[in-house]
Structures are given as structure tokens and as C-alpha cells.
Amino acid sequence: xxxxxxxxxxxxxxxxxxxxxxxxxxxxxxxxxxxxxxxxxxxxxxxxxxxxxxxxxxxxxxxxxxxxxxxxxxxxxxxxxxxxxxxxxxxxxxxxxxxxxxxxxxxxxxxx
Length: 112
What we know:
Elements: E1 12-14, E2 30-32, E3 56-62, H1 76-79, E4 84-91, H2 99-104
Antiparallel strand pairs: 1-2, 3-4
């Protein structure tokens, strides 16, 4: 496991309130979204053409309080069967995420 953390507000967008606006603008407005995007950061030196196919990203929904026990070598789904469930997963990444491909496209990486 590389990292475990929260993705706040997943599944919806929340606007800021405007305390100087109308009464309707004094509160947050919540909007459900069908497709959500979030960023996963990986050390650039860990991504190679050879490792792309084995990179796995798993998104879990926490049913109750976030687990406080240390993570073991088993998957989160196995360790925290009662506390969380897997809602999405991805195995393998496209070649355009490689640092060299990003550099060729004129985008910055931690290495460049």
C-alpha cells in the first residue's frame, strides 16, 4: 500500500456560502454528481513501463469511523470487512502517465 486517505465530498459538490448575500446564499448548496474525479499521486521514479500494468488503485467507502488500526500486508477490504467496502478499482495505467510522456507533452512532474 502506497497511501490511504480521504476524498472529502466524494459524490457531490458543495458551494461556498455568501454571508453578505441573500438569505438563500447564506448556506451551502449541495449538488450530486454522477462522475467524480480525484488525484492519486505516485512517486515518479516508481512508474516505469514495466510497473504500469501492476499498479492498482482501489476506492473504498468507509461505513463508519475511519479505521485507526495500523495497516497490514493484506488488502483493506480483508482487514476492515465490517468498516468499509470497495466501490471502485483500477488495475493498470496508460503510458501517458509516465514522467517521460508527461515531459514530452510539456507537462511538469516532480522530476522536471
